[in-house]
């Protein structure tokens, strides 16, 4: 029997949240999980919030995760980690990309971007992993690899073999970027 897992992936448009959720869903299916997922990406092209609920287990009936029931939050951006932290269960883990993407509305309308988003999350959550995925992606030569770096970190919390992840990455990433995405994924798996 496979343990049910609730994963919430959050970020802003253009960061690769939707591809990451597809990769996770496909890898879970390949591993024999029942998978349900739901995503919102209405303002994604304008830097708006993008999030995806992914539930996996023996038998999953609903794609939506209730507040306080997420096992792992994968946050592609600091403020999004702070915005969604209330969804995490008490013993849950949050993986935060050490990255700020200040939305245009913050400068246009005088809204304040939180100066201490990661510190705020750390005050509320015991299990916080802060990853500088942009630095790793930049070292590999392509900032578009941030999502596969972060998936590599997430993969260490899931019962899905590296071979299945590699197979799914090869099938789903843009043609010609397969090897680079696999390298990024493996780099992410090194983060503890």
Give the mean pLDDT. Answer: 88
Beta-strand portion reads: 15-25%
Structural class: alpha/beta
Largest sheet: 6 strands, mixed
Give the end-to-end Cα distance, rounded to a whole number of Å. Answer: 26 Å
Shape: globular
How are the strands of the largest sheet arranged?
2-3-1-4-5-6
**Helical coverage, percent range:** 25-40%
CATH C-level class: Alpha Beta
Integer-rounded radius of gyration: 16 Å
Number of domains: 1
Structure annotation, total helices: 8
CATH topology category name: Pyruvate-ferredoxin Oxidoreductase, domain 3
Order of helices and strands: EHEEEHEHHEHHHH
* Strands, count: 6
The name of the CATH architecture is 3-Layer(aba) Sandwich
Low-confidence blocks of residues = none
Question: CATH homologous superfamily, by name?
Answer: Pyruvate-ferredoxin oxidoreductase, PFOR, domain III
